[in-house]
Amino acid sequence: MPKRRTVMTTVSVCTQGSIPFFCPFCGAKALTKMDTVVRRPCEHLVYISCSETPSEPWYLDSRIPSELGDDESYEDAIDRELRGGANLMFILHNPPPAGIEIWVAFHLDDAAGADDDAD
Ligand SMILES: [Zn+2]
How far is the CA of 30 from the centre of ligand 1 (A)? Predict the structure, then answer.
């Protein structure tokens, strides 16, 4: 059986103003007030950026190269570097007049849930 390839799952959320944002896997806070990355992110957080500065991530996990290939997005790079497990991207839409999207990506490694699978 071929090894399952991780493909990013994307979830779009419309937010009304500034809210904190939490990791879906462990509940740790990732963003405070939508625009500030926490000082010590959890192990699942891999990427935060926004539509105004897509090539200058607010946060990038050390496993993801900061230099991208031609026509490659950070989403592509995350899927390429972090295989086996779940890659999850939240797109937080701020309605006009701001009209900004904030992109927050998390990775849950297959091995992290190995104990749970034993049941
Ligand atoms: Zn987490």
Answer: 8
